[in-house]
Structures are given as C-alpha cells and as structure tokens.
Specification:
single chain, about 210 residues, mainly alpha
C-alpha cells in the first residue's frame, strides 16, 4: 500500500470533497453510524471495453504465434505491465502481480487460444448487434412522428435490453445517465432525435 505524503494528501482531498457533497442528514447519518462509506471500483469505460474486445478478437483470428505477440506488443493499450494486468483482470485471465511481461503475454495468448471459438462467436454476435443498432438509429432519424417512434422502439426486441438502449443513445449522440430507467432513456432518445427534428422542420417551414 502506498504510504507517501503525496498519496495521503490525494486521498484526503477526495474524502474532503466527498464530505462537502453530503447533505446535513447524510453527514449526521455517517456520524451516528447509521450510514457507511464504501469503496467501489469504477471499472472500465465502454470505449476501453470495446478496444480490449477488438484486441482479443484480432489475436483470436491470428494463427501465427509471433503475430499474436506482435499485436500485443504494438498495442498502446497494452504497452505497460499495469495495462496488461488490467486487460487480464477484465477478461479474467489468470496472472500474478510478480509475473514478468513475457509471462503475462504468454498467459494471454494461451487463454485466447483455449477460448478461440467462443471469442470469435461472441465478437460476431456483437458485430451483428452493432449493425442492427445502426439500422434502428437510421430509422429513428427518418421518423417524423413521436407516436410512430415510440411504437417502433417498443416493438424492437433488441431495445428490450437496457444496455442496447444505451448503445443506441451513444450512436445517436444523446447523453444519457446510465442509472436512468429504460422508460426515461426511451423518452430522452425520442425527445432528442424525433422531437428536435420536428421542431427544426417546423421552424424552417415558418421561415
């Protein structure tokens, strides 16, 4: 565990900033023991997950061991030991913190070779999903009626999944709070894409 004064001050600032965001009731609950402070790992953002998945797939479809190693060595996202360990942690690839970079790379390649068929299949399914979300986004950008847009989204089997709705919102450049309910996400997409387009069209007609 880090114990330098600089590290301590960084953590202290994070704690103070957190305390300053609390309401009086929340602060009182902490003081009297009826609330806790919990550590939670932020995990990876979606962009990095996508990058990692692409790297995994590129290695899986490559047969030459030297080329597999080259893919890893040439990836900026895997350019240090800590980045390699993060990659391993995300895909649940066994590792030890004392392992050398060469051993970590060897473990990654062995894991991918062992799970090659599964990795390629999952990637293909994800590619098909991406294509379908592209088609849904394109259709929503064409619709000029709110009721029709809502009906179209409600009938889509793909959009029954909240994570797919979030992917659609990203595709349409609609900012969404990830903690929002499915209904709120749908409302925001329709408001940002269909309603905004109708307003813009109406204004142009008036002009």
């Amino acid at each position: 565990m880090a114990n330098s004064k600089k590290d301590f001050n960084i953590v202290l600032k994070i704690f103070i900033d957190f305390i300053n965001t609390l309401t009086e009731d929340q602060f009182s609950n902490l003081v009297n023991g009826s609330a806790d402070i919990k550590y939670q790992d932020k995990g990876l953002d979606n962009d990095k997950k996508e990058i990692y998945t692409n790297i995994l797939y590129k290695i899986a479809i490559e047969d030459n061991i030297e080329e597999k190693t080259k893919i890893i060595a040439c990836s900026e996202e895997l350019s240090t030991k800590s980045k390699l360990l993060e990659f391993c942690k995300y895909f649940k690839i066994c590792y030890k913190s004392k392992d050398t970079i060469d051993i970590i790379i060897k473990n990654i390649i062995e894991f991918i070779d062992k799970n090659k068929e599964s990795i390629i299949y999952k990637y293909s399914m994800a590619e098909n999903l991406e294509e379908n979300i592209d088609k849904i986004a394109q259709r929503l950008e064409e619709i000029m009626d709110i009721v029709e847009a809502r009906s179209f989204m409600s009938k889509s089997k793909i959009l029954e999944n909240k994570s797919n709705l979030l992917k659609l919102s990203k595709k349409l450049n609609v900012f969404i709070d990830r903690d929002s309910t499915r209904e709120i996400i749908v409302d925001n997409i329709i408001r940002s894409v269909v309603e905004a387009k109708i307003r813009s069209y109406t204004i142009r007609k008036k002009i």
